[in-house]
Design goal:
The chain is an alpha/beta fold. The chain has helices spanning about 20-40, 60-75, 100-105, 150-165, 195-200, 285-295, 325-335, 360-375, 385-400, 405-430, and strands spanning about 1-10, 45-50, 80, 110, 115, 120, 130-135, 140-145, 170-180, 210-215, 220, 225, 245-250, 255-265, 270-275, 305-310, 315, 340-345, 345-350. Bound molecules: manganese (II) ion (MN).
């Protein structure tokens, strides 16, 4: 028995990115291309793993255009199964979202389990409600976005699946969810991740294909966990990881043979460039270097691109001397972009502090940074290390909540001994 399906996520229809009407249309056009491809492939069903819409409140035009695409699938007899993403969730006081409207039009099977008396209820989909649907030999479970509550919901889900599957384990099972799993995105330390692999592991015996959305980046792990990424980039960062559609073919049997192909579609180019401004002593030198760099960029684009230009490195003249409209104009002339963003990320050279070595303690790092700053000031240059020590002492006293009088007295003593040393040295040198 062979089954074929398409897995999409994060369409973000209705997003007028950069306030650009063209970008609004781009999101629909790429979706349109994907739907045409899906129709050509004659899949058995389509999965949309959340964030069909960019916002919970959408315009009439967004609804009309979204309906039009879903209607094409409906007319071809291809069921569309979806869950709710965080972007389209109704306000906590409202019961219904625009996805419910689509479900009421039979354009979408919207899955979500519900809680009753603290217990997760999984029922077959009926009249817009339910936690799973059977399509032939395939059972699709679905749950939307739960944020920080995701570990609890997934644990409850495992409990219910154990009960249900003890009675009968369907030949092939899918879990559709809008969630982030650890390791998918590189994040700053301390950022919470909604689900760990440890929390997902108990699902393995019960789920044959985990269909995720939410992380706008294609992920495929162990022929089990799949996330297709966003069809259109929601930011320049995302443009580095183009999303697409997973076309999946399954030969149902033990073990299942799952073949997944990630397919991308033509879309507007996102161009990211940078210029290191460190070598330039004047704005004119910078403009000239930018001109040369632009001339050397011979890449041709099939349609006006979105351009992001970063000026980074060290700036050896005041940023106020830099005329950003000249920079922007040069970039506009060269790329004829749909939208362009220029970021001045260069740091003024006089404030640069070298990154302290990593093995140092926090206090040592602070002292090193302060010492470097003091070395730039003629008054403190000579004894910068000792002055930095006084700063450190001062901070400790404040943290220990010593009285202001005590702190001032101590500061006087330290400073005067340091000033005397300096004088003594001067005298010595003079001698
Ligand atoms: Mn999203």
């Amino acid at each position: 028995m062979r089954v074929r399906f398409a897995h999409l996520a994060d369409l973000h229809l209705g997003y007028e990115q950069y306030h650009s009407p063209e970008r609004y249309r781009d999101f629909f056009q790429t979706f349109h291309r994907a739907v045409s491809d899906i129709l050509k492939e004659r899949v058995d069903f389509v999965l949309i793993a959340g964030d069909l819409f960019h916002q919970r409140v959408i315009s009439p035009m967004t609804l009309i255009l979204a309906q039009r695409e879903l209607q094409r699938l409906k007319e071809a007899g291809i069921p569309v199964v979806g869950v709710m993403g965080n972007h389209e969730q109704p306000h906590y006081r409202q019961d219904h979202s625009w996805l419910d409207f689509l479900a009421a039009q039979d354009l979408l099977i919207l899955l979500r389990p519900h809680y009753q008396d603290e217990k997760l209820v999984l029922q077959h989909y009926q009249e817009g409600l339910g936690g799973y649907v059977d399509l032939g030999d395939v059972r699709i479970y679905g749950t939307g976005y739960h944020g920080a509550a995701a570990p609890r919901v997934f644990a409850d889900l495992v409990g219910r699946l154990e009960e249900l599957h003890a009675e009968r384990r369907p030949p092939f099972t899918v879990l559709l969810a809008h969630a982030e799993v650890e390791g998918m995105l590189v994040r700053g330390a301390g950022t919470r991740v909604s689900l760990t692999h440890y929390q997902l592991a108990p699902l393995r015996p019960h789920i044959d294909y985990l269909a995720l959305g939410h992380v706008h980046k294609p992920v495929q792990q162990d022929d089990w966990l799949f996330n297709p990424g966003a069809l259109e980039p929601n930011s320049f960062d995302e443009s580095q990881h183009p999303g697409g559609v997973f076309f999946v073919e399954v030969e149902i049997g033990r073990p299942h043979a799952v073949r997944a192909e990630h397919r991308r579609y033509a879309r507007r180019p996102f161009v990211r460039r940078r210029l290191d401004v460190t070598p330039f002593q004047t704005p004119e030198e910078l403009y000239e270097a930018l001109r040369r760099q632009l001339q050397a960029d011979a890449e041709q684009f099939p349609m006006p691109p979105a351009v992001e230009y970063s000026l980074d490195g060290l700036l050896h003249f005041p940023s106020s001397a830099l005329q950003m409209d000249i920079v922007t104009e040069l970039i506009q002339q060269h790329y004829q972009p749909l939208v362009s963003q220029v970021h001045l990320r260069a740091m003024p050279a006089e404030y640069v502090v070298h990154a302290p070595a990593e093995h140092l303690s926090r206090a040592e790092m602070e002292q090193q940074v302060i010492q470097e700053l003091l070395q730039r000031d003629g008054r403190f240059q000579r004894n910068a290390e000792q002055w930095a020590g006084i700063f450190r002492e001062l901070k400790e006293q404040i943290l220990e909540r010593q009285s202001a009088e005590e702190i001032v007295q101590q500061l006087r003593r330290s400073a005067s001994s340091l000033l005397n040393t300096g004088l003594a040295e001067d005298v010595h040198h003079a001698g």
